[in-house]
Write a structure and sequence with these properties.
With 438 residues, the protein is an all-alpha fold. It has a domain at 280-438. It has 18 helices and no strands. Helix 2 runs antiparallel to helix 6 (80-108), helix 6 (80-108) runs parallel beside helix 9 and helix 9 (143-164) packs antiparallel against helix 10 (168-186). Mean pLDDT is 89; it is low at 247-276.
Length: 438
């Protein structure tokens, strides 16, 4: 088996294999009709039917995704096949980017090439074919999730390349690429707001080897990201009061960045100010910040359960809202869930144990910055960081959506494969497991 991963042609052949396997998994979805929010945002959105409306589209908070829908319409009209093919292509690119990112990460840790390829390949393959990704890939409108994830991954890879560039002009150009990717990611979907934190932690963990001086040397890049982060906060996050996530309630009143005129309308010219139906932020009346936070403790544990056992998946969960920290929420009659609802305090303790494990693993690597445990620590944090815009105390009317865990799942798959690899290594050799170290 090791000879396979050691082969110099392994990476291109693996990427081809992964693409074909993933194509087999999703091939029966290419002719699926528009569903739910696809109807107002794509099928009945007259704005995307003329590329001459590009200027108006670019005013939207999710302009990049909207423009891709317009390009789809320009090529194939309302034939859903083209939309599904683009969604699938984005997903394959993301899986490939995930593989490349993991290879780069293990290279910083000086992990041998065979082990690096083995772990990276299995983690990327799980990312590509796991059923939890179905919604982000096959639900046309959730191209928002996968497209923003693509630019998120590209930004991190460009930052890695910039950190290794010796030429100041090349390094500056790559930093510019990081900033551009952040802009494209955010205007695909706002959940990529956390990108600067992901890059900063990656730099600190792997590139700078835990040395603050190494991080500070890259101040031009961080200054650029800080400016963009501040602008996004001022222009989008603060007015919204949080992070919207497209739902049936939001579809009919999805608004432009001024939150004044609906983009889903029967004519191109704005019809005048619309009364907003708040579906995210502190202005919504359906759920309080405390109830949302308590519920998210259970939601994040439920995500972990779905990643481990992807059964009873649902596009629109009737997930029970938690009113009290120490009392399990009542499950609505007829609701089918994978696990009994726990009191939020129990879920919180589970999450704190996992976060504590990340801190412990990083602490173990303080004297050995090349330990694989550092990668495990980072990707545990990755899971929570990517989920943080939608799983916090800032309310959203929909407690749970599987597409929200799309990019976050890469952290889970990476740690899962590392643990399994260590256990199998112990079984095969009959010796003590390496415990995620080199």
């Amino acid at each position: 088996m090791d000879r396979l991963f050691a082969n110099r042609r392994f990476s291109p052949l693996f990427l081809l294999f992964m693409s074909l396997v993933t194509l087999g998994v999703y091939s029966n979805s290419f002719f699926a009709a528009f569903q739910y929010d696809d109807v107002p945002i794509v099928r009945d959105n007259f704005l995307i039917r003329d590329l001459g409306n590009l200027g108006v589209m670019l005013e939207n908070t999710r302009a990049v995704t909207l423009v891709t829908f317009a390009l789809n319409y320009a090529v194939g009209g309302l034939d859903t096949t083209g939309y599904h093919v683009v969604n699938f292509a984005i997903h394959i690119i993301n899986a490939a980017l995930a593989y490349i990112l993991l290879l780069a990460t293990f290279k910083f840790l000086k992990v041998d090439q065979t082990t690096s390829r083995r772990i990276s390949a299995f983690a990327a393959l799980l990312f590509a074919v796991h059923p939890i990704q179905t919604q982000a890939v096959t639900y046309i409108v959730q191209r928002m999730e996968s497209l923003s994830s693509m630019f998120y991954l590209i930004a991190i890879l460009l930052f890695i390349m910039a950190s290794q560039a010796s030429n100041i002009i090349k390094r500056g150009a790559l930093y510019g690429g990081v900033a551009l990717s952040y802009v494209l990611a955010f205007y695909s979907k706002e959940i990529t707001y956390t990108l600067p934190a992901a890059i900063l932690l990656y730099d600190y963990f792997f590139i700078a080897k835990g040395q603050i001086k190494g991080v500070l040397k890259k101040w031009p890049a961080y200054a650029l990201l800080a400016v963009l982060f501040g602008y996004f906060t001022y222009a989008t996050v603060v007015p919204l009061g949080g992070f919207n996530d497209l739902s049936d309630e939001t579809a009919a009143v999805e608004t432009d960045k001024k939150y004044a005129a609906p983009i889903v309308k029967s004519e191109l010219a704005p019809a005048g100010p619309a009364e907003l139906d708040y579906t995210a932020g502190f202005k919504i009346s359906q759920v309080s910040p405390k109830e949302y936070l308590y519920t998210q403790f259970n939601v994040m544990v439920y995500y972990l359960g779905l990643l481990l056992v992807p059964a009873n998946q649902n596009l629109d969960y009737d997930f029970p809202w938690a009113k009290e920290l120490f009392k399990a929420p009542a499950v609505p009659p007829g609701t089918v869930l994978n696990m009994p609802m726990l009191p939020p305090i129990v879920s919180l303790l589970v999450l704190l144990i996992i976060i504590g494990a990340a801190v412990y693993l990083f602490a173990r690597t303080w004297k050995d910055p090349h330990s694989k445990a550092r990668a495990a620590s980072y990707f545990i944090i990755w899971f929570f960081l990517v989920l943080s815009p939608t799983s916090s105390f800032v309310p959203i009317v929909d407690a749970i959506y599987e597409h929200r865990v799309y990019l976050a799942s890469l952290g889970y798959f990476t740690v899962f494969v590392m643990v399994v690899d260590a256990v199998i290594g112990r079984i095969i050799t009959g010796k003590k497991a390496p415990k995620l170290t080199n």
